[in-house]
């Protein structure tokens, strides 16, 4: 099927991804058809396959792009100083990175069940890599004698879940600024790790 007049790959492919992200977040992956995605972008249904092989590839590419960006940004921002400084940097980074990305976060957590086993394995490996950043900080704090956590893995998962929870309630026009939110969460995380 011919491409819609005026459609260009460098313009249309990001629009396809943005439409899929929006629809998956609103309705859930299983409830969204390729025809709906095409309609959202203004393409004929068959033309959508010029930009993606299938719906599974769209879901996987959205999740992988999110995780790749998260890991690259984390590596840049959370690598300097002692364990306390790195933990503070991790908290600030995680909160600022996730603000305004509610759709990406929802899909990254809630749509894992819809990945093929191979794609699930890839995304899980990326998630573990991110968790390892924080777990390494906690382990360093334990060895420096500044943190007191009974189980670094469980604490890692609890802290990440707590920080990621901001996507469910934070609004840019709300009463707290991003800096105030980060400071509140930093105080909570310090208590969680026994600092």
Automatic annotation (TrEMBL):
Residue intervals of the HTH tetR-type domain: 10-70
Keyword terms of this UniProt record: DNA-binding, Transcription, Transcription regulation
Name of protein: Fatty acid metabolism regulator protein
> What residues form the membrane-spanning segments?
none
- Give GO terms: molecular function aspect only: DNA-binding transcription factor activity; transcription cis-regulatory region binding
The highest taxon in the source lineage is: Bacteria
- Residues in the DNA-binding region are 33-52
In its UniProt entry, the species of origin is given as: Pelagimonas varians
